């Protein structure tokens, strides 16, 4: 980001107690994997207001100081909600949510929370896409207007998503 002209500032969720963690219910099997317990974005406001781009590692500690690794998409969604973001965009290595997992031409361009829950119940959303979709739903439930899952391998995908009416991936709304 700095090389491209931005002013990135590297942080972790542990810095300034930006994120507080709790153990994931499966942490006994997974090791030190956690979930976001709460977010305090206070330290981010001066950085953002001064033109800096916070780059946040998805590591946080619990009240006792134990560190946990947290899913990065989940952290992004929680931060978007805490910052009052209008839109959450997740860059991934697939086109978005597919109606049929093995058919790249079955992209779901837009859906709402009920539609996403139906896709999960029908097992059309599975594997690594579930945490992405769940964090989008949670962010929207906390006030983010829309969440999109787009293919970061496509050149200028982020610009296309932000600047065009049609977007590239899947947009989820309330």
Automatic annotation (TrEMBL):
GO terms for cellular component: chloroplast thylakoid. GO terms for biological process: L-arginine biosynthetic process. Its EC number is 2.7.2.8. Keywords: Amino-acid biosynthesis, Arginine biosynthesis, ATP-binding, Kinase, Nucleotide-binding, Transferase. InterPro entries: AceGlu_kinase-like_sf, AcgluKinase_fam, Asp/Glu/Uridylate_kinase. This is acetylglutamate kinase. Pathway: Amino-acid biosynthesis; L-arginine biosynthesis; N(2)-acetyl-L-ornithine from L-glutamate: step 2/4. The keyword Nucleotide-binding applies. The keyword Transferase applies. It is an enzyme of class 2 (transferase). GO terms for molecular function: acetylglutamate kinase activity; ATP binding.
